[in-house]
Amino acid sequence: MLITKKIIEDDKDYYIESIFDSTNILKTTYFPSYKRLYISFGRGQTYSYGNINEELYKEFEKSHSQGKFFINEIKKNPDKFPYRKEFSLYPREIEEIRRIINENKNELDDE
User: Fold this and answer.
1) Strands (E), 10-44
2) In what order do the strands lie in the sheet with 36-41?
């Protein structure tokens, strides 16, 4: 489930940062002009996936389960969506993302 979404723009381009309440996916950063999606997983490992068009990214973002969508549509097609390991998040970054998820879940529960 999508928790937060930010569109970051400058004079030339933009990208999208999203945080999800998912058992496997913490955060994504999507660069439409490069068709590249960065996914930070639960333990902080971050991989990038190429050839991700905006339509596919929107389907991923809106899906009921981002983890299942990722596995079925992206991970199972490495020839179509080449990937590489990029970096790992610091433990404090993971904690901050989890704090944001918990705060937003609590707000949704209160409504």
Assistant:
1) 14-20, 25-31, 36-41
2) 2-9, 14-20, 25-31, 36-41, 45-49, 83-88
Alpha-carbon distance of 12 to 10, in angstroms, equals 6
What is the extent of the structural domain holding 93? 2-110
Beta strands in 21-95 (DSSP E): 25-31, 36-41, 45-49, 83-88
Number of domains in the chain: 1
| pLDDT given for residue 111 in this prediction | 53
What is the C-alpha to C-alpha distance for residues 25 and 97, in angstroms, rounded to an integer? 11
Enclosing H/E stretch for 3: strand 2-9
pLDDT, tens only, 29-54: 999 999 999 999 999 999 999 999 99
Position 88, amino acid: S
Instruction: Using a pLDDT cut of 90, give the percent of the chain over it.
Output: 89
pTM listed for this prediction = 0.92
The Cβ of residue 83 has, within 10 Å, a number of other Cβ atoms equal to: 14
